[in-house]
Write a structure and sequence with these properties.
It is built from 8 helices and 6 strands. It has 228 residues and is of the alpha/beta class.
């Protein structure tokens, strides 16, 4: 199968996935009930594929779709304030063609960057169970296989970092010892050509409190650009 065919097959498999009953019920309930401000939206209500440049050297690993963000729009980090914060930083650092992400047809494209969550469905309280992350791991493994030019991984939050490292190991790659520790802007060589960078997640809990600022997030992506 060609890479294009493999990407298509992967995304079709992700969108049709019903492996986690708890997540299926939650994502579909949210899509059915909707939030008042989005009452006229036709919610996506399904697992969310990765998004971006399929020849990317930068992989950005997130946690999961937001209930009224990507679970509504069908594109990761699209339609919520976390996405607004993330794409503003990606635009400033040259990885995105625009600083906003509102819906799947808004014209957003990524340059040399690809975004994938470790959990593809919106979870209750934004907290996927370990078993649910495990069920999603084959999708990230296939993305790692297809991202043949990968050089830098940015993990948004400790759970995303841990999920990525478990996938990296399952992919047959060696996780450095001692195991990489999480901290904002912390940098860990994974092998001779691939580097892991850590960042606080651009959640409102972090951005509204000032734990993560735009200059802090831009510094991570500027470092990624320098490594590339």
């Amino acid at each position: 199968m060609s890479d294009a065919g493999a990407w298509t097959a992967l995304n079709e498999t992700i969108v049709a996935c019903r492996l986690c009953p708890r997540l299926v019920v939650y994502r579909e309930d949210v899509a059915r009930l909707r939030r008042r401000q989005f009452h006229e939206w036709d919610y996506w209500g399904r697992p969310v594929p990765g998004f971006g440049d399929r020849r990317a050297r930068l992989l950005i690993v997130g946690l999961a779709p937001a209930a009224h963000g990507a679970n509504r729009t069908g594109r990761i980090f699209t339609g919520d304030r976390s996405g607004d914060f993330l794409f503003a930083a990606l635009h400033v650092t040259g990885f995105a063609n625009q600083p906003t992400s509102t819906h799947r047809g808004d014209g957003l494209t990524l340059r040399d960057a690809y975004i994938a969550p470790i959990c593809r469905c919106a979870p209750p309280a934004n907290k996927p169970l370990p078993s649910e992350i495990l069920n999603c791991r084959p999708y990230l493994l296939e993305e790692l296989r297809l991202l043949r030019r990968l050089r830098v991984v940015v993990a948004l939050g400790q759970i995303a970092m841990d999920g990525f490292l478990r996938a990296w190991s399952a992919f047959g790659r060696t996780v450095p010892a001692p195991r990489p520790s999480f901290g904002h802007c912390r940098e860990h060589p994974l092998d001779a050509r691939t580097t892991l960078l850590c960042s606080y997640h651009p959640s409102q809990q972090n951005t509204f409190t000032g734990k993560l600022t735009q200059p802090m997030l831009q510094a991570v992506f500027n470092r990624a650009k320098a490594l590339l």
